[in-house]
Amino acid sequence: MAEKARSVDRACIELMEETKNFTIGSCWDRAEKQQPQCGFGLGGICCRICSMGPCQINPFGDEPKRGVCGADADTIAARNFIRMIAGGAAAHSDHGRGVAEVFQLAAKGEAPGYGIKDEQKLLQLAMDFGVEIGDRSVQDIAIDVGEVAMGIFGSQHGPIPFLKRAPLKRQALWRELGVEPRGVDREIVEIMHRTHIGVDMDPENLMLQGTRAALGDGWGGSMLATELQDILFHTPTPTLSRANLGVLEAEQVNIVIHGHEPLLSEMIVAVSQEPEMLKKAKAAGAKGINLAGICCTANEILMRHGVPLAGNFLQQESAIATGAVEAMVVDIQCLFASLPKVAECYHTKVITTAAKAKIPGATHIQFEEHDALNTARKIVNAAIENFPNRGKVRIPDVECDLIAGFSHETINYLLGGVFRASYKPLNDNIINGRIRGVAGVVGCNNTKCTHDNDHLTVVKELIANDVIVLQTGCSAIACAKEGLMLPEAAAKHAGPGLAEVCETVGIPPVLHMGSCVDNSRILMAAAAVVKEGGLGDDISDLPAAGSAPEWMSEKAISIGHYFVASGVYTVFGATFPTLGAPGFTDLLFNKYEKIVGGKWDFEPDPLAHARKMIDHIDKKRRALGLDKAKERVLMDMAARRELEKEFEEQPAG
Fold this sequence. Notes:
This protein is of the alpha/beta class. It has 4 domains: 3-56, no CATH class; 73-233, Substrate Binding Domain Of Dnak, Chain:A, Domain 2 (Up-down Bundle); 245-389, Rossmann fold, CATH 3.40.50.2030; 406-623, Rossmann fold, CATH 3.40.50. Helix 5 (73-107) packs antiparallel against helix 7. The longest helix has 35 residues, at 73-107.
């Protein structure tokens, strides 16, 4: 793997020489040493569920095509696939549970530092949950909302309440198929039971349960995490910030916050601005305290506080390699086990904070919900005390401005105004052809791809063809670093129709909607477009598509499948974990569209990947009768008088 092929990010390329000094090697070095990777594992046809295996199903030659128990490639691939859904749904939903627990404590006044920042959203959630509002206090309403929220995880009968937010036709389909999630935890446990040896062996039946669990993630645990975080920390609004490793400051204490939960990072943001902490930093020889983020914790504090992005998933080691990071503070998910080993080459302290996510060699400072501010102070103090231990500093002079914080509510207001918040302008511009369609491009980085290249190639091709792009997670960070999240990017990169709309509304052609749990915001936006009218009566009717060009985690599989199960055509790049099982892959890529209205696809070439999405969008436009561009007609006086006459003849009221 040539060095320049490892990444298209100029900051990463600059630090490649530095990463050669890692005793453990960089993530790219370690990926090279893993080659060639197991073909059975890549194809999803290796089973190690029981100790009679592992069984590998050779798709070639005359060897046996079944495992010891008799399972064939399709059954094995289906079991492996829905276990990935279970893993991803568990990660997102456990995140949601952690937020719900802190929400309950905050509602009861038992978590100093936390409070209700968005009362309007609390009241909306209370109505969704059937919690009485009346003249009750905000605290009493919040306590009841917290109890309902916690119940969503352990519910045994369902359906979970957020399903009611989907279009009515979609709800009816889920009900007919019997895939309404009963409770988040129940569906994950049932996957583990069904995939135990000797239980469910029918790929289609296995996928129905995978669908239940994925919907429990997207319309349950993830959506709940997003809603409660907005209530606790405020719903994001457009925020100007910066992205890439150049946001690190040579003369300040740099704290990089990495992971996925904003519970502790919110407190670190508050504490880092305390006069006492700034005084300590200056006493240590620094000019101040600088925060930067990596991965989805980064997206959370970016949206609400403008904290700059240091980078995405594959940049976590590179951040340490600058020599400028006093502390890398991690919570949960997407953390490299290599971080403490890499930090040994520098002065950086790697600090873990979650009891469920410890790394050998790291310093552990346990996050205490009842005493979160003091936990944050311990962490910031540790970083300040480490500042004098710095060695050589090499911060790439690479950064870019961005605008983030386009929540579902914000898009609504930007399009329709504060008093007439509406998706109607978006629908109208899709109908008249200025906007060809909508794409959600999300997901991780993967060493199988040139870092960030596939995200950027897919997104640039989409917007050049008048497709507006909604983004979350590490994909959003990739595009932020490239300048695609600035309004002026529309004139430079977008097609004429999309550019015209972006200029009129004052938005970028690529909208940052948050962290990976915030894919639920994209679901809400899709449902809102359907409800606005004119583009069909289900999400599956929309000229829309989903994409994860560089995915790598089980969370991505769960996200992908809850979009498919919601009616969205979804394309993955990099690799796909079922290709060794043709029958099961055909179920996902073809037959599933007849079942749920959405389907999976795989395309590792990023340009072809984008073209598949555009072709699907055009197919949906044809089905809606929108395939012929409508001419813009200037009305003459006779036409205006005719329109006025029709209006006057309409019955009053």
